[in-house]
């Protein structure tokens, strides 16, 4: 029997049982659509989270926390380590920072702010891609840049400075002028509780952090200013409450609190991270975070696909019933085909093709419905949630995403289930006795 004759035989049976076949196809389409839409939620949220991570973090940055000397003991990084890190292939820059270990007070006239002072190495910061929202990078030791939120907390001293309801500084107490070019006084204490002052000039303002919830009100000073603080206090980073004799002053500026390695591009991050780990450096990068996020979502997507598959399996009951009825109704036709010498394999193929035909049509309809549902979810659900809870959702949040791979997985599962559903009826058709089939005695 030719292939076109097989299809003609299949179409004739479908035309005879339009309603039953339609309901079977509908059940298959619903199962396939349910699988795709359910799994698309996992894909959509993963896509949003990953894109948010890539957009809101420096993706080429690798934080290096220390060097393992053995048995879980780590030491801080030194200039020797910086030199080693800078000589690694595909490393663009190695930044290093030190933080004053007390909270200095910074004053502009009668306005002041208590905030963190961080010593940074400007050449490496510029090479890493650090940018300013306003001003220029310091060229003199007493020039500084400040965080983007520094001016938001620069306020007069006095009673009732903070609003009781919001907890924020009242508008009338805030510094209103531009801070660029202003001279500020950094006041810090020594171990004898004597206050010392270093005049500094603000020449630039950092860009706002990529994450909306982050606040940067720090003051970024030069290593020379940090050295002055250490000289006055006699302790590393100006730490109070420690014995100056314990520390070797010649080593204070050669050890760093924070070191970051910047790769030339995202593709080099994993290679550099692996090399640093092999060299016993403790590291962290966005790539590590993405691995964990992707693994979590992979498990979630697998679970959603499994739940969706159950819906298709339920739909397969209808396919099994349809094919069983088809064998019963076409028993005389099967008997005639066997009487004229039709191969049992051919008869089996016809019924398997029919069940596959139902599966393909159901899968196509299911995919189309799934895409339509995905569009409606991404468009309508944010509006519903915002109207219900009165809060604006993050920009770019995607609830549903249907990659082509998900479509292939869903169609493959649908076809496999429908073919398996048709196996038993197809086998039963090949086992029918010719005479009994023609007389419908079975």
Automatic annotation (TrEMBL):
Every MacB-like periplasmic core domain range: 21-278
Keywords attached to this entry: Cell membrane, Membrane, Transmembrane, Transmembrane helix
InterPro entries associated with the record: ABC3_permease_C (IPR003838), MacB_PCD (IPR025857), Macrolide_Exporter_MacB (IPR050250)
Compartmental location: Cell membrane
Transmembrane segments: 21-45, 295-320, 357-377, 397-420
GO molecular function, one term: transmembrane transporter activity
ABC3 transporter permease C-terminal domain span: 306-429
Name listed for the protein in its UniProt record: FtsX-like permease family protein
Annotated organism of origin: Oceanobacillus piezotolerans
Lineage, highest ranks first: Bacteria, Bacillati, Bacillota, Bacilli, Bacillales
């Amino acid at each position: 029997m030719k292939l076109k004759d097989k299809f003609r035989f299949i179409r004739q049976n479908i035309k005879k049982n339009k309603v039953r076949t339609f309901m079977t196809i509908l059940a298959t389409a619903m199962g396939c659509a349910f699988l795709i839409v359910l799994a698309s939620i996992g894909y959509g949220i993963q896509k949003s989270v990953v894109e948010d991570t890539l957009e809101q973090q420096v993706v080429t940055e690798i934080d290096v926390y220390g060097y393992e000397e053995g048995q879980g003991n780590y030491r801080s990084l030194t200039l020797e380590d910086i030199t080693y890190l800078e000589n690694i292939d595909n490393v663009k820059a190695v930044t290093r920072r030190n933080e004053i270990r007390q909270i200095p007070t910074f004053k502009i006239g009668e306005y002041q702010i208590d905030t963190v002072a961080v010593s940074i190495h400007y050449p490496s910061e510029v090479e890493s891609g650090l940018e300013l929202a306003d001003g220029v990078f310091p060229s003199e030791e007493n020039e500084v840049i400040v965080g983007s939120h520094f001016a938001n907390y620069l306020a007069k001293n006095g009673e009732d400075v903070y609003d009781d309801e919001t907890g924020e500084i009242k508008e009338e107490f805030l510094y209103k002028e531009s801070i660029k070019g202003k001279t500020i006084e950094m006041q810090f204490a020594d171990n004898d509780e004597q206050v010392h002052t270093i005049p500094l000039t603000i020449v630039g303002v950092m860009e706002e952090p990529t994450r909306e919830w982050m606040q940067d009100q720090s003051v970024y000073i030069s290593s020379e200013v940090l050295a002055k603080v250490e000289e006055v206090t006699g302790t590393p980073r100006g730490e109070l409450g420690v014995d100056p004799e314990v520390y070797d002053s010649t080593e204070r500026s050669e050890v760093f609190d924070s070191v970051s390695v910047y790769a030339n591009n995202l593709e080099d991050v994993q290679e550099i991270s692996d090399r640093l780990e092999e060299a016993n450096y403790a590291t962290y990068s966005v790539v590590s975070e993405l691995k964990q996020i992707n693994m979590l979502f992979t498990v979630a997507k697998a679970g959603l696909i499994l739940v969706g598959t159950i819906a298709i399996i339920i739909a397969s009951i209808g396919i099994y019933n349809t094919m069983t009825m088809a064998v019963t109704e076409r028993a005389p036709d099967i008997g005639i085909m066997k009487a004229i010498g039709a191969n049992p394999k051919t008869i089996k193929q016809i019924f398997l093709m029919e069940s596959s035909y139902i599966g393909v049509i159901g899968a196509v309809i299911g995919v189309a419905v799934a895409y339509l549902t995905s569009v409606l979810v991404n468009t309508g659900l944010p509006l519903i949630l915002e109207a219900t809870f009165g809060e604006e959702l993050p920009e770019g949040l995607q609830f549903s995403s249907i990659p082509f791979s998900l479509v292939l997985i869903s169609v493959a599962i649908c076809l496999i289930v429908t073919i398996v559903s048709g196996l038993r009826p197809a086998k039963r058709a090949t086992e029918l006795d010719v005479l009994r089939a023609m007389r419908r005695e079975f």
